[in-house]
């Protein structure tokens, strides 16, 4: 900063070849392009390697990596799947546009990982599913399973379209590289290495890409802090620009970000992803044990917080740097999602290669999310739709080929939907709103099945689609009647007017003072914070589902397989320490046995999936012997004695 400011300029004033002084945005050098191309080449080569190495493996290996993966690559893949370019662009833009309240989402992350690891994940692991929606068939019906899977498909393709568009927009802003050429290039690479490399390629590519993301963020944070002069000047800037808001404890659900919306609302938003989303469940169950699956899941809490804090502090430095010359008002860029790439080019352009490293990190986030999503879409569509209704028409080889074709088809669809994403504005809010509007009802139907034994399949259908209709109504209404939000102050004191066009200068001063529209939208529901969308959807799904179930004939708890109900009060702190006399009635007649999350194991002698021994083999079951058919029958067991190599005599 300069002690002697030019006439009319205000502190802080930054001297140098920066955009607000020169009137131009820095461009990539050949070194930057080289680093960016190297990242794409490495990602593609991982897919090629596993496509060749595992070309003779079966469908289970293609979709589930043989269920023998180490928790480290699985944990990194879980982290990368939804810590995409949206996070890298959206989190700093959130600080720049509004305030530092978003730090509180870290508490929501902790609650989310705890809930996903100890409530939802054990259920999927003990059932050894490939598709998370297999649970819904066992709990409700085949139709509920297929309906939920198709809702997941809708959520995934819309989300991935945003993920594909956001970094392409950034690359276009800072390099001049054609926007749609970038969309096609990135979408094609992700589609091809996912299609031919399978789950292992996705896991190892994700691991490489998340490390690239973190390295790029660290480079931007360190150099940004050096330019600004450290955290002290940046913190002072927060106070001057109305961004120093971090303790809003308002209970009002219409306030966009509060401690409660970001922690409690954040829990429901993110547990819908880490707890029941096919993308995350499919990765978690590739580990050989539940303990390792939980380790992989818990790796995400420090990982997510590390990326969150890096992004938020970058946003703080970015806000201080552009305090007195807003690049959007100065027409250097057209979108808040482009502020971070411009900041990178301003502060890193004197170090050849570092801008390329950042863009490589940005696209690493996009590639990891696209690859994970496409792989999960393939598993969901094949297992829950095609394989479920036409299973006899496919052998293992044809099933794998079909799975590859599904990836390629959805990759092509994403390229078209990227245009829709260009119309959505703030990518972070758009993505999280999508998680709530579509992911929330899915979380609701799983919650209905796992916690409420009275729910039947009719209630599940009505709850799922009823909450979808409600949330789409709220979401579309909020988009049409945008609720008022308080933004940070954005100034133009230090913009070098001599290098700007007359039209730009006129528009800048025409918008110096902007009156916030505080009029209420048509319905109060439209004012609901987007962070509460998922929680609202869960409450709506459960309420509608239970009401319809009791009207149409509820399921008796004793008729439900205990393995399909979560023993919440027996496994969750602090309820698990309650006396048995209190916990017993809270089970509502469900008799839970064994360890929650332990899967059924195959008899090692027969190695047949049809001849399994439950780890809960101490249960006393009344048996009925049919000597004519040579079978032992009960309401739980149907074992063919003539063909079985071994029968558990403890039964």
TrEMBL record:
It comes from the Eukaryota. PROSITE patterns: NA_SOLUT_SYMP_1, NA_SOLUT_SYMP_3. One of its GO terms (molecular function) is symporter activity. The chain crosses the membrane at residues 33-52, 72-90, 102-125, 146-165, 177-196, 208-235, 255-276, 297-322, 357-382, 402-421, 427-451, 458-481, 530-554. GO terms for biological process: inorganic ion transmembrane transport; sodium ion transport. Its main location: membrane. It is found in: Cell membrane. Keywords: Cell membrane, Glycoprotein, Ion transport, Membrane, Sodium, Sodium transport, Transmembrane, Transmembrane helix, Transport. It catalyses: iodide(out) + 2 Na(+)(out) = iodide(in) + 2 Na(+)(in). CDD domains: SLC5sbd_NIS-SMVT (cd11492). One of its GO terms (cellular component) is plasma membrane. It is a multi-pass membrane protein. Belongs to the sodium:solute symporter (SSF) (TC 2.A.21) family. This is Sodium-coupled monocarboxylate transporter 2. It comes from Biomphalaria pfeifferi (Bloodfluke planorb).
């Amino acid at each position: 900063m300069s002690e002697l400011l030019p006439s009319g300029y205000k502190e802080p004033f930054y001297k140098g070849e920066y955009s607000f002084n020169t009137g131009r945005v820095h461009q990539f050098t050949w070194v930057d392009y080289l680093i960016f191309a190297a990242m794409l080449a490495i990602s593609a080569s991982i897919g090629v390697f596993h496509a060749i190495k595992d070309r003779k493996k079966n469908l289970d290996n293609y979709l589930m990596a043989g269920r023998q993966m180490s928790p480290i690559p699985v944990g990194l893949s879980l982290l990368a799947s939804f810590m995409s370019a949206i996070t890298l662009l959206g989190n700093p833009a959130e600080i720049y546009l509004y305030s530092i309240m978003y730090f509180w989402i870290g508490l929501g992350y902790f609650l989310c990982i705890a809930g996903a690891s100890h409530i939802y994940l054990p259920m999927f692991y003990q059932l050894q599913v490939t598709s998370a929606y297999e649970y819904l068939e066992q709990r409700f019906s085949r139709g509920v399973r297929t309906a939920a899977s198709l809702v997941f498909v809708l959520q995934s393709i819309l989300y991935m379209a945003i993920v594909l568009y956001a970094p392409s927009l950034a690359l276009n802003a800072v390099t001049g590289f054609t926007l749609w050429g970038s969309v096609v290039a990135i979408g094609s690479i992700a589609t091809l290495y996912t299609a031919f490399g399978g789950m292992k390629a996705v896991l190892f590519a994700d691991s490489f890409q998340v490390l690239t993301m973190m390295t790029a963020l660290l480079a931007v944070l360190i150099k940004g802090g050096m330019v600004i002069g450290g955290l002290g000047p940046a913190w002072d800037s927060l106070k001057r620009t109305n961004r120093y808001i971090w303790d809003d404890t308002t209970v009002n659900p219409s306030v966009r970000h509060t401690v409660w919306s970001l922690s409690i609302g954040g829990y429901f938003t993110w547990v819908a992803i880490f707890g029941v989303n096919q993308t995350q469940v499919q990765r978690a169950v590739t580990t050989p044990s539940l303990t390792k699956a939980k380790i992989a899941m818990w790796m995400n809490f420090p990982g997510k917080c590390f990326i969150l804090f890096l992004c938020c502090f970058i946003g703080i430095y970015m806000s201080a740097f552009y305090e007195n010359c807003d690049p959007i008002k100065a027409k250097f860029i057209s979108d808040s999602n482009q502020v971070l790439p411009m900041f990178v080019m301003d502060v890193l352009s004197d170090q050849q290669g570092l801008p390329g490293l950042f863009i490589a990190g940005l696209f690493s986030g996009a590639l990891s999310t696209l690859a994970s999503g496409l792989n999960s879409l393939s598993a969901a569509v094949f297992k829950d739709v095609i394989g479920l209704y036409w299973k006899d028409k496919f052998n293992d080889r044809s099933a794998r080929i079909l799975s590859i074709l599904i990836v390629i088809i959805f990759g092509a669809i994403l390229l078209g939907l990227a245009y829709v994403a260009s119309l959505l504005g703030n990518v972070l809010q758009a993505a999280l709103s999508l998680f709530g509007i579509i992911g929330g009802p899915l979380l609701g139907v799983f919650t209905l099945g796992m916690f409420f034994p009275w729910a039947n399949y009719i209630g599940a259908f009505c709850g799922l689609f009823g909450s979808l209709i409600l949330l789409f109504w709220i979401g579309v209404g909020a988009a049409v009647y945008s609720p008022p939000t308080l933004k940070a102050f954005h100034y133009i004191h230090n913009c070098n007017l001599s290098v700007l066009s007359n039209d730009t200068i006129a528009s800048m001063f025409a918008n110096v003072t902007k009156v916030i529209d505080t009029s209420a939208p048509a319905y109060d529901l439209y004012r609901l914070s987007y962070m509460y969308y998922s929680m609202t959807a869960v409450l709506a799904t459960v309420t509608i589902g239970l009401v319809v179930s009791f009207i149409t004939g509820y399921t008796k708890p004793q008729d439900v397989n205990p393995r399909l109900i979560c023993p919440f009060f027996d496994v969750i702190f602090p309820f698990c320490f309650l006396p048995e006399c209190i916990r017993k009635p809270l089970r509502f007649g469900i008799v839970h046995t064994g360890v929650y999350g332990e899967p059924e194991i195959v008899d090692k002698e027969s190695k047949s999936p049809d001849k399994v021994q439950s780890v809960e083999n101490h249960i006393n079951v009344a048996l009925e012997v049919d000597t004519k058919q040579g079978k032992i029958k009960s309401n739980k067991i149907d074992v063919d004695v003539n063909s079985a190599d071994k029968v558990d005599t403890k039964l």
